[in-house]
Automatic annotation (TrEMBL):
<keyword id="KW-1133">Transmembrane helix</keyword>
<protein>
    <submittedName>
        <fullName>1,4-dihydroxy-2-naphthoate prenyltransferase</fullName>
    </submittedName>
</protein>
<feature type="transmembrane region" description="Helical">
    <location>
        <begin position="251"/>
        <end position="276"/>
    </location>
</feature>
<feature type="transmembrane region" description="Helical">
    <location>
        <begin position="171"/>
        <end position="188"/>
    </location>
</feature>
<feature type="transmembrane region" description="Helical">
    <location>
        <begin position="142"/>
        <end position="159"/>
    </location>
</feature>
<dbReference type="Pfam" id="PF01040">
    <property type="entry name" value="UbiA"/>
</dbReference>
<dbReference type="InterPro" id="IPR000537">
    <property type="entry name" value="UbiA_prenyltransferase"/>
</dbReference>
<feature type="transmembrane region" description="Helical">
    <location>
        <begin position="30"/>
        <end position="48"/>
    </location>
</feature>
<feature type="transmembrane region" description="Helical">
    <location>
        <begin position="195"/>
        <end position="213"/>
    </location>
</feature>
<keyword id="KW-0474">Menaquinone biosynthesis</keyword>
<dbReference type="GO" id="GO:0009234">
    <property type="term" value="P:menaquinone biosynthetic process"/>
</dbReference>
<dbReference type="GO" id="GO:0042371">
    <property type="term" value="P:vitamin K biosynthetic process"/>
</dbReference>
<feature type="transmembrane region" description="Helical">
    <location>
        <begin position="117"/>
        <end position="135"/>
    </location>
</feature>
<dbReference type="GO" id="GO:0016020">
    <property type="term" value="C:membrane"/>
</dbReference>
<dbReference type="GO" id="GO:0004659">
    <property type="term" value="F:prenyltransferase activity"/>
</dbReference>
<dbReference type="InterPro" id="IPR044878">
    <property type="entry name" value="UbiA_sf"/>
</dbReference>
<keyword id="KW-0808">Transferase</keyword>
Length: 321
């Protein structure tokens, strides 16, 4: 099946450019940006008086993250289109709604338009991040370096160095979530906190635990272009064990934090709804029916529930001894 065939099979591919650019930026996938309310809930309670710089810095960091992510996914789509992996991944059913989310595959944007958009959002994101650091109440060096490293590697996720094509895809998906919590927290407080670290690690596992289901669905396309995801490199049994280990590790991280006093004793209990969703997600994705895309959708729900529970945990911790 050619790219032209995929385009022809996707209904309603003619649409306004603004809509196509929004699809390219994946603005409807807000899951990484849920770090902002998590961080806000972690920094507001201990503050005696309201500091307007808190919201200004957090808002600027969030805008920078949106722009950087838009650049990342634009270049990712560009590379996936050029090497044919996106077309291959939609071969089985090109009429799926998700095919419209790839404007290059659907033919609603051209390669030059995507390249310009990728660089424009990258430079804009860098500028906004710089302003966020300059206006932040604190700017410890570890926080600044986290932001810089995340930006540099993010732009080269599938472009330039193409780190996701050299075995680091899963690591970066999780690391982006970790930075999205730790960096703004550092800018707002100037300190490093063990409980916030646990929250950052759990938050980063959220996108990873719907990303690995996407990779499972995209094995054929990724193998065809040599993209070394765990799903593409290992056997179905090995991939199933990898996803199971991540799902169990998420629970064990919260349990260990509660057991050691890094988190409140009740934290692991509060997060149990996420554990239940993970068990359901795994059963649907790797059970007898093997409905990977439905399991992936449950992953979004689990992550969003988890973010809400992290906010709840911070608010409870603020009012209890």
């Amino acid at each position: 099946m050619t790219r032209a065939t995929v385009r022809a099979a996707v209904p309603g591919t003619r649409e306004a450019k603004l809509v196509s650019y929004a699809r390219l930026a994946k603005l409807d996938v807000f899951d990484y940006y849920l770090s902002l309310p998590v961080v806000l809930s972690a920094v507001l309670p201990p503050i005696g008086g309201f500091d307007p710089r808190t919201l200004v810095t957090l808002g600027l960091f969030g805008l920078g993250a949106v722009l950087m992510t838009a650049s990342l996914v634009a270049f990712d789509d560009l590379t996936g289109y050029r090497d044919g992996s996106d077309t291959a991944n939609y071969r089985a059913d090109p009429t799926l709604r998700r095919a419209r989310r790839k404007p290059l595959v659907a033919g609603t944007l051209t390669e030059p338009e995507v390249v310009r958009f990728g660089w424009l959002t990258a430079f804009a994101g860098a500028g906004v991040f710089a302003v966020a650091v300059a206006t932040a109440p604190y700017a410890p060096q570890w926080t600044v370096w986290l932001i810089v490293a995340n930006f540099v590697f993010g732009i080269q996720y599938s472009y330039g160095l193409k780190i996701s094509y050299h075995g680091f895809q899963e690591a970066y998906i999780a690391a982006l979530g970790w930075v999205m919590v730790l960096a703004p927290y550092g800018l707002l407080t100037g300190r490093f906190d063990g409980f916030v670290l646990v929250q950052a690690l759990l938050f980063g596992l959220g996108p990873l635990l719907f990303g690995v289901y996407s990779n499972t669905n995209d094995i054929a396309g990724d193998r065809s272009v040599g993209r070394p995801t765990v799903a593409a490199l290992t056997t179905p049994r090995g991939n199933r064990r990898f996803v199971a280990a991540l799902s169990l590790g998420e629970f064990l991280l919260g349990a260990a934090a509660s057991a050691t006093g890094v988190a409140p004793w009740w934290f692991v209990l509060l997060m149990l709804p996420v554990t239940v969703l993970r068990a359901r997600q795994f059963g649907i994705g790797f059970g007898p029916r093997g409905d990977i895309l439905r399991a992936r959708a449950i992953g979004f729900t689990a992550h969003r529930v988890g973010a809400a529970l992290l906010v709840t945990a911070n608010l409870i911790a603020a009012v209890t001894p």
